[in-house]
Amino acid sequence: MTTTRRPRLKGTDREETARRAAELYGQGCTIASVARQLDRSYFLARTLLLEAGVTLRARGGHTRKAAA
Q: Where is the Helix-turn-helix domain (predicted)?
């Protein structure tokens, strides 16, 4: 399996991609889903979200209520 390196995102391209990532994340997509839709890595998607000023949601999973 080979991977293709993509050119680095710089300047306005990076800002536009960060805005798109923030929009997708705001619609309820997970970081992994955002990464797939942008065809970028999870790490880059997360970095772009932080650069866009997005507050990341807590990790999911089942939460138990305290016993009564």
A: 5-64
How buried is 20 (Cβ within 10 angstroms: 0-12 exposed, 13-18 middle, 19+ buried)?
Answer: middle
21 assigned to some structural domain: yes
pLDDT of residue 35: 97
Cα 46–chain centre separation? 4
| Beta carbons of 44 and 35 less than 8 angstroms apart | yes
Which residues span the domain enclosing 46? 11-52
**In a domain? residue 30:** yes
- Cβ–Cβ under 8 Å, residues 19 and 27: no
12-37 confidence digits (pLDDT tens)? 999 999 999 999 999 999 999 999 99
C-alpha to C-alpha distance for 11 and 25, rounded to whole angstroms: 21
